[in-house]
Amino acid sequence: MPRFFIDGTADGRAYIAGADALHIAKALRMRPGEALTLCDGKGTDFEGVLETVTDRQVTVRITVSRPSQAEPTLAVTLHQGLPKGDKMDWIVQKAVELGVTAVVPVATRRSVARLEGKADKKQERWQRIAAEAAGQCGRGILPAVERPLSWNQALSRLSGEPALVFYEGGGRPLRELVTPSTRRLSVFVGPEGGFDPEEIDAIRRQGGGVATLGPRILRCETAPLAALTLLMHLSGNME
Hints:
Blueprint (H helix, E strand, L loop, with lengths): L2 E3 L7 E5 H10 L7 E5 L4 E10 L3 E11 L7 E7 L5 H12 L3 E6 L11 H19 L6 E2 L3 E2 H6 L6 E4 L5 E2 L10 E6 L7 H9 L3 E4 L10 H12 L5
Parallel strand pairs: 1-3, 6-7, 6-12, 7-8, 7-9, 10-12, 10-13, 11-13
Antiparallel strand pairs: 2-5, 3-4, 4-5
Helix pairs in contact: 2-3, 2-6
């Protein structure tokens, strides 16, 4: 069943405009009387029936509301070292499918990609990819893709929140660091060149743990997805 995110409901109805209305009317060719699923992006799902459909606005009569069943018990913020090319598109899409709560692009010491003058457009693109992925996989929230941060900015925001950095230079097995009782976690994954040792030391000084994904060196677009899969499994959200 088609699924769309909405800002809220009023008088038992939801109103969809913009690109989503155009998609419903033209691409999906939906008509009044057909059913679809909506989500407020805050954990509540709605079942509804189309009342009116135009390519500018769609009206949906809400029939049922209920808490979303798709959200994991572990809230993960992925801090991803900026990769080259369009790899971030893939990382954002798959991270959202795997249950990430937020994605924070980070310019690390070894990041080759530079976004001078392009950060806002990139953020808009990545947020659009996240929204499409969230709708496709039935998420109950709309994960945020934040504006790119510097390494120091990313570290300064931790404020004691549990954090893990995945380091190709070695670390503890993930099963020693994450259990089903873990509820929040900030995760750091490096760009193509990995992390500088001084960055790893900085995470340690903030109280963060250093984890390994095994003896093989994973590509920067593979590592975050492997990490998220293991995190969801170890926390009881992918069994």
